[in-house]
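Case study.
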Amino acid sequence: MTRTRRASLLAGVLLIGWTVLVFAFIFAPVVSTVVFSFNADRFPALPWGGFSLQWYEAIAADETIRRGLWNSLVVAFGASLIATFLGFTAAYVDYRFRFFGKGIYMALAALPPTVPVVIMGVAMLTFQGRIGLSGTIPGLIAAHVVVCAPFAMALVRMRLADLDRDLEPAAWNLGADQWTTLREVVLPFVAPSLFSALLITASVSFDEFMIAWFISGLNETLPVRVLAMLQGQVSPRINAVGALVFGVSILLVVVAQLVAARRLAAARLKGSDQ
Amino acid sequence: MADSSLSHARASRIRFAVFLGAPTLIWQLCFFVVPLGFLVAMTFWSVRNFRLQPDFTFANWSTILSAGFFQSAYTYTFGLSALVAVFVSVAAFPVAYVLAFKVRPSTRMLLAGLLVVPFFTSFPVRIYSMQIFFSPNGLINTALDAIGIAPISVLNSPTGTFIGFLTLTAPLVVLLQTFALVAVDRQLVEAAHNLRCGALRTVFTIVIPAARVGLVVAGAFAFVLAFGDYISPQFLGGSNPPTLSILIADQVKSGNHWPRASVVAVIMIATLALVLGALLKLAYGGRKPS
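After joint prediction, the assembly is written out as follows.
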């Protein structure tokens, strides 16, 4: 074996080793959350204390966690509906129209996630406090829509990029007005992405903690409850809540992916029949 | 007649466009632009007897800008965020390189999909897990003890914050870098190989310059995320020393001094805008128009 062969072999091993290490770092906290949520011991340490569901029972019995979960679900539901509607209109506006100030319009629709959440939190608190929205569920929904809508817009916009630009004008020439065309041509085409957008914005809202921490007041959401628990003593209940949140979010995303994939496959099948 | 129906059609087209465009505009103006504008206005308000009063005073600005705790927090937050952005960019690059060039596309899809998983676990919960790993009697020290190495102390120090920032930024940076490297023209890489250019030299003379924009954007995201993060410095760093986001939270939650918190927030936004502007210029600047 030549020296260069050996060197490149060594480089390959180092590369793979480093990749495994980085992946281990990224996944260690995720895995340990799930593993220790089933741990029978009070303190999360090795060796593992045996399988137990006691932390799940503890959080199921905890009134504050149940209320937080309910608030989170209500906020995620409302925020995802509104954010998906706004995301769709903004994506369609970007796809269909050219107008003066479009750059600013699109920046407004896309930029909120780049502003640090701690700043969004203070801004929301001071502003919503003035108009009496702070501490209310509608206030939380309003704030979450701002950060969720850009995700919905991005998803719908990607789907619209595949829509033939001449399809709508063709429908107009055949006498359909713009509303009919939107309903009969555009909406069915983007339907899978709308569904994905609903679930992904719901999951973004469900996980958001910083803005909610500033403005939720007595209407704590689940992640805000977790934050309060973090400030208290170490408790495996946090792992149980975390694993639960993880499960719900992953479920939402997987369903979103599956539905999008199935609709797409169905659409292709239909297309090949004709 | 024809004229009026034409103008009628035109009016209905405009109505259609406005009806679709307006909701997002109104919502983002009401709940994004106005709150941020209000934040700027509030920096000039005053607090008397624990009550907010509309005012036009620079007192909050001068108090914050001249405060030693603010200056040290600013330097610390900026320095640590920049360090993390550079560190995570360098650490992620080999991983992105493996994902983009060394594995089959199906494996790449699988690994990239796995990298999305952490985004769907609550970040505070992941940080709580890191506490478990790094606590004095935690998993890592138990393991180190077993092989006879002295325990490391990480929590409640800048190292803890640093690890938190890595936890926050690593998945995203690896993903973005992978996208950037996948987009690099394979023919360039093969041409370099055919010309007997070594692997390392190919990376530095072909791959990195070709993927420059994506690599800089990934680093910029890391900086933005770390700069604004509250969870890592609070729960892994023990707010020791405090970062800007901790100053904001403290001023709001316990100090009840919203105008001063607003000053810190506005300075943070200005800093981010400057840094992002500079980085994008670095990414796109000096580039021949293609």
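Observations recorded in class. Chain B touches chain A through 78 residues (CB under 8 Å). The mean pLDDT of chain B is 89. We will return to this complex in the next lecture.
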